[in-house]
Amino acid sequence: MSLPSRLIACCSRTAASLALSPVPRNPLGQGQHIRTAAALIIGDEILNGKTLDRNSNYFAQYCFELGIDLKRIEVIPDDENDIIEASRRLVDKYDLVVTSGGIGPTHDDITYASIAKSFNRPLAYHTETLARMESIAKNRPSPAHQTEEQLTAQKRMALFPEGAEVLFVAGDLWVPVVRVQGKLCIFPGIPSLFQKMLDGLKPYLPLPPPDARPRRVQVFTSLPESSIAPYLTQLQARVSAERIRIGSYPVLQRGVYVSLIGVDRKRVAGIAAEVEKELQGKIVGEGEKGAQR
């Protein structure tokens, strides 16, 4: 489950008047930056087909553009044992882990509590989050009277693993990014919120330097994939030592997109020119690719 839509709507209408969190020290250590990442998508609604997961795709694009090697995307149910096992394993293996979903006020929103158990932390109300929640609540229509149970359910959304970093990354949202173990960042599942908060998190992440970020060039050819396979196999063997990756992606009855990815921009451009010539193709931009598919 996710945050109630009425609370999110009020966030988008509120003036950007809430202070952002100061940027803390590098959680990975001085001089270190994020190299690898994983996404943990949490929700029964994803697995039973009710909701289409858009967050993992957005995160994949985010990582690529920033030069982070996204190694794994996992989708798991709203199950405490699954969340505990997966969060421990991914944090142990990767530099950045994001979770999506399960931070609303209902019984099946168990992400905060499960992550707390995963890393042996108690839960504690976060005073600043409660204050921001109440501040924004004043600007939205609400029922004339809320029961004690309803108020308690609302406050659950500010019940975080004790000692976690609480990062307010958007001036018009009370919802923070909660970071545990310096690596695991907890996000809501609503795509518009996930995307906005992920973008806002950039200043708080030790990102790779710009010269470590890859370039992707794509060549479209009308030749069938089977006929270009031998050449691409030989080419990949030739450039593997240069950390250049080559992929082929067919479009039914039209042709094939050949993708070349590498950090050395000049070298990638040179190989793309070779591929364009050898495969009687054309270098295309992302916009052209979308139009032809």
Automatic annotation (TrEMBL):
MF terms in GO: FAD diphosphatase activity
Q: What is the lineage of its organism?
A: Eukaryota, Fungi, Dikarya, Basidiomycota, Agaricomycotina
Task: Identify the Pfam families for this entry.
Answer: FLAD1_M (PF24102), MoCF_biosynth (PF00994)
Ranges for the MoaB/Mog domain? 38-208
Record Gene3D superfamilies:
MoaB/Mog-like domain
Could you tell me the Gene Ontology terms of the biological process aspect for this record?
A: flavin-containing compound metabolic process
Q: What is the protein's name according to its record?
A: MoaB/Mog domain-containing protein
Q: Which InterPro entries match?
A: FLAD1_M (IPR056596), MoaB/Mog-like_dom_sf (IPR036425), MoaB/Mog_dom (IPR001453)
Q: Superkingdom of the source?
A: Eukaryota
